[in-house]
Design brief:
Layout lengths: L1 E6 L3 H12 L4 E5 L10 E4 L2 E4 L11 H10 L5 E5 L2 E5 L2 E4 L11 H12 L13 H9 L1 H16 L19 H10 L12 E5 L5 H8 L6 E3 L6 E3 L4 E3 L3 E8 L17 H5 L2 E2 L2 E7 L8 E3 L9 E4 L11 E7 L17 E4 L5 E2 L4 H12 L4 E3 L1 H4 L6 H18 L1
Parallel strand pairs: 1-2, 1-12, 2-9, 6-15, 12-20
Antiparallel strand pairs: 3-4, 5-8, 6-7, 10-11, 11-12, 13-19, 14-17, 14-18, 15-16, 16-17
């Protein structure tokens, strides 16, 4: 009998396995795929380094996460970049974030954007709304919403903006009208107020999976691949998974909605499980020569099915220099409808689950699920276990916090 069974061997599950074993716990990690890594896996295709789970770049505000990663893969094995991300607005490409770089647009466009920002609902004193579409208009004004935020996020999430909650909006810019005007007049932005990481690390070889390989190196004997969870049953003194794995406690790092049947279809939580939703992303690899230094570009254009494009050779040192990959919500993807310069994709991969979709009520739903199962010894950790839009570093940090909490509990 194990002390812990971990469901899922993505970056959260691997980190939990490592840290629990270091604490002397008897652990097994069950992974339904034939290899560990989850969204952080990388494939080598015709000289290209392709992160098949979409864009992953390593940076964190948590020093302990840096310490853990660099302990297993030396800092010298990374390149360090100043982020170059762009936004396509009509025929113009400007720097991200939009609110700091309106000055890069033609003058007539600048005027329209500035007027719209000045007239936003927050500036006008209107009360804060409760869904994403109304909130985004209230915060940013109609122009930024109609040209960028609404179409981009509709393409990304695959749901109507009015269905989405506002509890995840720390991920988007916090517009200060005075600063928007200042940037336009000075024709520059203050990078210290960048809404996300300004710099990032990326492995010199092996893509983002180099981090996974380093963390998982000593954990592979404790990871059982090809083991999809079909049943989770609580007996008097143990959890039993698939009728053969027993443990005092279980940690889930996968989407809860995929475990509903395995948990015996708990009727009392049915509506909560229904609010735990995710989207699926197609990653498409193409070859095209480029001289730009961009790392990625956001594509809000409704006429283009994909929402983001990545210039692989500008961050993956070991990759062919002409590689580009696109991210497309599977809802918008049709086989053969994506081409660059009339060239079809070199390869395509579909994620099983990409982003937790923040539909209205999802936060209360996941809290009820965790509050129900936690006292029984079934926990949720990481992007999927907590159903939060966490980057890889945050999921690692949440795994660290969980293991530390065990020490506090004795």
């Amino acid at each position: 009998m194990y002390d812990y069974i971990i469901i899922g061997a993505g970056i959260t599950g691997i980190t939990l396995c490592k840290l629990l074993r270091e604490k002397g716990r008897n652990v097994i990690c069950l992974e339904k795929e034939e290899e560990p890594g989850g969204l952080c896996r990388t494939k080598r295709i015709q000289g290209h380094t392709l992160d098949i789970g979409g864009g992953h770049f390593f940076h964190t505000k948590h020093q302990e996460v840096f310490d853990l990663v660099f302990k297993h893969i030396p800092k010298e094995e990374f390149n360090y970049y100043e982020r170059v991300s762009k936004i396509l607005l009509g025929d113009e490409t400007i720097d991200y974030p939009i609110e700091s770089n309106i000055w890069q647009l033609p003058m007539n466009e600048q005027i329209e954007y500035i007027i719209s920002v000045i007239c936003n609902g927050e500036q006008s004193g209107r009360p804060e709304p409760g869904n994403y579409e109304e909130w985004i208009r209230w915060k940013l004004g109609d122009k930024i919403c109609d040209e960028y935020m609404i179409p981009y996020n509709t393409k990304l999430w695959g749901v109507e903006p009015k269905e989405m909650d506002i509890d995840w909006l720390h991920k988007i810019p916090r517009v200060n009208v005075r600063e928007v005007l200042q940037y336009c007049l000075q024709r520059k932005q203050d990078v210290t107020k960048f809404p996300a990481h300004i710099h990032f690390y990326y492995p010199k070889k092996g893509g983002f999976q180099a981090i996974i390989n380093a963390l998982a190196k000593d954990e592979l004997p404790y990871i059982k691949c090809g083991e999809k969870v079909e049943s989770i049953v609580k007996n008097d003194d143990a959890w039993v998974i698939n009728g053969k794995y027993q443990a005092g406690k279980v940690i889930n790092t996968t989407p809860w909605c995929d475990l509903y049947e395995a948990l015996g279809n708990p009727v009392e939580l049915k509506s909560d499980f229904e609010k735990i939703r995710y989207n699926r992303i197609v990653v498409s690899l193409y070859e095209k020569h480029y001289d730009i230094n961009w790392h990625w570009r956001y594509i809000p254009d409704k006429n283009k099915p994909y929402h983001r494009e990545f210039y692989i050779g500008n961050f993956a040192q070991d990759s062919a220099k002409n590689g580009i990959y696109l991210e497309t919500n599977i809802i918008n993807h049709k086989e053969g409808n994506l081409k660059i310069d009339d060239r079809p994709a070199v390869a395509e991969y579909v994620t099983d689950a990409a982003y937790p979709v923040p539909v209205i009520g999802h936060a209360d739903a996941i809290k009820r699920i965790l509050d129900h199962y936690g006292p029984l010894g079934l926990y949720g950790v990481g992007r999927w276990g907590q159903h939060e839009y966490q980057n890889a570093d945050v999921s690692v940090h949440e795994a660290m916090r969980f293991v530390e909490s065990l020490d506090r509990e004795g």
